[in-house]
Specification:
binds magnesium ion, binds uridine-diphosphate-N-acetylglucosamine, mainly alpha, 419 residues, three-stranded antiparallel sheet, two-stranded antiparallel ribbon, 2 domains
Length: 419
């Protein structure tokens, strides 16, 4: 489909075709970076005055840091998309093969933005109103509705490709109907909350999101270069590049020692952005592959998330003001007070040495909170906050490399990728 004009570049003796909209998009993304970088420090006082602030719990001086700066990044990201959208759809190069305006593509863009916008609104509501934990689960479901609606009207393809070893029994693909919509809704809930619960040390929310975004961008570029369904991957790039632009500026101020906190607004907006590109680009399984640390953290957290083991309001590591190092934070309970599932989780986690626990003679157990952040401290011992963040970000990068290793060589092994 000759949807876009492109520019040919000659470099290093080979020629590259870069579509004009991609060049404009890159320029807008650079603009998003500079505008965010300019605005964030100037808006700090405004957020403090509006009582949007939180204590940095891992510092000796318990100063208040402006919170929910994800809303600034989110707005700049959205405005970048608004400015960009006319470009690929501008009259002289917007016609598809049949000479028609590509309404379906246009609607996809609008729906993607509507879902992201909705998520920013709900995330900000969470930051301002401090919603209860269970309410946080519904929000991404609501925000993903515009997306699911467009998926229904545009594709309504609810068929999944089955791995080869199952294919011999039930065929190469299976239509799972409405379940596919449940899956997409759950993907949005997972992506948003999984980032939010892997948080609590300076810079971690932003760093993990940046690694995921860059991984998806690399994946998209590889797919475009090898000549696979260019449009879906270009669509994803058009959304992710401005996201990375705006987020890089946020990282500058959120990195150790944080001058601003990102708030749940940012975590929700990031998760939703990844879910949106995965769903509309038909590569949601690959997006999930880039969430390996979040998946591990989620599974590890399940006993606390479902309250089988007591879960304090904050599970972030505990700061020692004497040494300025972080230690793992703890939860406390009596085994006899746990229900049967709680006891089961405790025994399994303990015997697999996934937790460090001490039981006194009165039967009171003290053990680390179930997050991979605390688990990392179990391995390293007390550690500086910035080092811990670097370590966890490195882990995210290694997992992305591993994800590529699964996606490429192993996908051919498990799935029939010839079509
Ligand atoms: C999630 C986690 C919680 C963790 C919190 C940290 C679950 C179920 N919830 O809760 O365990 O403690 O994120 O973000 O796993 N903060 C810092 N330093 C940072 C970032 C945050 O001290 O680098 C503190 C600040 O006081 C900030 C607060 O955490 O105000 C933000 O917490 P919030 O995002 O409201 O927590 P949840 O997302 O509900
Ligand atoms: Mg949070």
């Amino acid at each position: 489909m000759a949807l876009f004009n492109s520019f040919e570049f000659i470099a290093f003796g080979s020629s590259f075709n870069i579509p004009l909209p991609l060049i404009v998009n890159m320029l807008i993304s650079i603009g998003a970076f500079y505008v965010s970088q300019h605005l964030i420090p100037r808006m700090k006082a405004m957020f403090i005055n509006a009582n949007l602030s939180g204590v940095d719990m891992n510092k000796a001086t318990k100063i208040r840091i402006p919170e929910a700066f994800g809303v600034v990044t989110g707005c700049i990201f959205l405005v970048s998309l608004f400015l960009f959208i006319p470009i690929p759809f501008a009259s002289n190069f917007s016609k598809d093969d049949t000479g028609e305006f590509p309404h379906h593509k246009f609607v996809e863009f609008i729906a993607a933005m509507l879902s992201i916008c909705c998520m920013i609104l709900l995330g900000f509501a969470d930051d301002v109103l401090n919603l209860r934990w269970r309410d946080k689960l519904y929000l991404p479901t609501i925000a993903s509705l515009p997306l699911l609606m467009v998926y229904y009207t545009n594709f309504n393809s609810t068929t999944i490709i089955l791995p080869k070893f199952v294919a011999s029994f039930v065929g190469t693909s299976l239509d799972i109907g409405a379940l596919y919509y449940v899956y997409m809704g759950m993907l949005a809930v997972f992506c948003t909350n999984a980032i939010n619960i892997l948080a609590g040390i300076n810079g971690l929310e932003v760093c993990q999101s940046l690694v995921i975004a860059v991984s998806i961008i690399v994946f998209n570029l590889v797919e475009i270069i090898v000549g696979n369904s260019k449009e879906a991957y270009e669509f994803s790039l058009y959304i992710l590049l401005p996201y990375v632009g705006a987020t890089l500026a946020l990282w500058k101020y959120n990195r150790y020692p944080s001058q601003v906190f990102v708030g749940d607004t940012f975590n929700y907006l990031s998760g939703m952005t990844f879910a949106v590109v995965g769903i509309l680009g038909h590569f949601s399984k690959t997006v999930l592959l880039f969430f390996i640390p979040q998946i591990i953290n989620f599974i590890y957290s399940v006993p606390q998330l479902f309250r089988l083991i007591p879960c304090p309001r904050h599970r972030l590591p505990k700061h020692d003001p004497k040494t300025d190092l972080l230690n793992y934070s703890k939860t406390q309970f009596r085994v006899s007070d746990l229900n049967i599932l709680g006891k089961f989780c405790y025994v399994v986690f303990k015997s697999l040495r996934l937790i460090r626990s001490d039981e006194d003679k009165d039967g009171v157990v003290v053990c680390n909170n179930f997050t991979i952040i605390n688990f990392a401290i179990l391995i390293t011992g007390p550690i500086r906050e910035d080092r811990l963040n670097r370590l966890l970000t490195m882990f995210q990068v290694i997992c992305s490399v591993f994800a590529f290793a699964i996606r490429y060589p192993l996908a051919h092994y498990f799935y029939d990728t010839s079509n």
